[in-house]
Amino acid sequence: MKREVWRETPLAVKLLLSTSFMMNLGFYALIPYLTLHLTGSIGWTLAMAALVLSVRQFSQQGFAFLGGAMADLFGYKGTMVIGMLVRAVGFAMFAYCTETWHFFLAAILSGLGGSLFDPAVSAAFAVHTPDSVRKEVFAFRNVLGNIGVVGSQLVGTALSVVDFTYLSLFAGGIFALCGLVLFLLLPPIAAKNTRYSVWESMSHVLKDRRFVRFTIILMGYYYLNMQIFLTIPRFVEDVTGDTFYVGVVLSTVSISVILLQMQVTRWLEGFQQRLTLIGIGALVMGVGLFMLAFADSLWLMLINVFLYALGTMISVPNMVEMVPRFAPKEMVGAYYGFNGYSVAIGGSVGQIVGGWVYDMGHQLAMPWMPWMICLVVGLIVAWKLYQMERDEGRFEKGAKMANL
């Protein structure tokens, strides 16, 4: 980030950037190794372990709409601090779980904590970031997030080798520390919604057809996004025969974002068609995934996942920036919460359908099938967002003519 942009960034946003980095470090250090712990030390099947992870994700994304509306009504700071402390308890509980229901309770608490702090943090970013530096700040947040992911692989590996208990307590401690830091140092953020109840806020969002349309289209983006956690690792292991190269390929995605995100954002800052940009990013991701159908070596896979990473660099800053453009100032949290359904539904479909199609492709001797579907999804997202941008332009032009 440029020095002048950093100087223009308020203290509250700098604190939120720092805690976002720490939370990514704690989250991604624990979650991948939780699966290994459940299937290894606890002796569960992979399906049972996946169910626990799904419960955690649904607890977060399914209630994020309500959590965002509550943040608008009761204030962002208090909501995010409570959410971080609830997640801290949930993550730390994994260290002491012995019964099946213990793990599900910990997963539910972890998810509910996220449903409180996630939309509140995003809304606080949107409210406190000046318009002049908004895109660069959101891009830098994406960079810090990926630095946290890379660091989490080192921390997670080191602590899991010693004992999963320490890893679980570390992850919980990170969220407790973030909550404490924000409680002590973050300036008060007054509630923006002083006129509407939680249910009225939620009803308002549901009636916003433009935003609902945007959220539905983004489900396709998250279908593509979730392949990084499922089909890509499986494909790399199948081609190379070595799980070590899975880490190499995934690290390539994160390192590419760390090195190039800010530059890509600067290259595109003059392009005003934000929805079209998100669609272009999704299409680039789809092309990168489709090219994996022809990748029979590590180097070709690295080139293809770099293309995939480039697509995320184009889309992510614009996706985060678009939500406040739709939302009234007093309902930013509710809008971010509802937008989380694009992750919940698109991500779930991406995991379930992506894995099923991958297996079916091999059974039918059509290994290109999952990657072809990714290309089609990318094309659909790009076309639908272009259409939406075109319709938005007509709407604004009509409104100006009506005011003449």
Automatic annotation (TrEMBL):
UniProt domain Major facilitator superfamily (MFS) profile: residue ranges: 12-390
Identify the keywords attached in UniProt to this record, alphabetized: Cell membrane, Membrane, Transmembrane, Transmembrane helix, Transport
Main location per the UniProt record: membrane
Per its UniProt record, what Gene3D superfamilies does this chain match?
A: MFS general substrate transporter like domains
Name its cellular compartments. Cell membrane
Gene Ontology cellular component terms for the protein in this record: plasma membrane
Quote the SUPFAM superfamilies the UniProt record gives: MFS general substrate transporter
Answer whether the UniProt record assigns the keyword Nucleotidyltransferase to this protein. no
User: Which GO MF terms are attached to this record?
Assistant: transmembrane transporter activity
Q: Where are the transmembrane segments?
A: 12-31, 37-55, 102-127, 139-161, 167-190, 211-232, 244-263, 275-295, 301-320, 332-356, 368-386
Asked if the Swiss-Prot or TrEMBL record annotates the protein with the keyword Transmembrane helix, the reply is: yes
Which InterPro entries does the record match to this protein?
A: MFS, MFS_dom, MFS_trans_sf, MFS_Transporters
Q: How does it sit in the membrane?
A: Multi-pass membrane protein
The name on file for this protein is: Arabinose ABC transporter permease
Species: Brevibacillus panacihumi W25
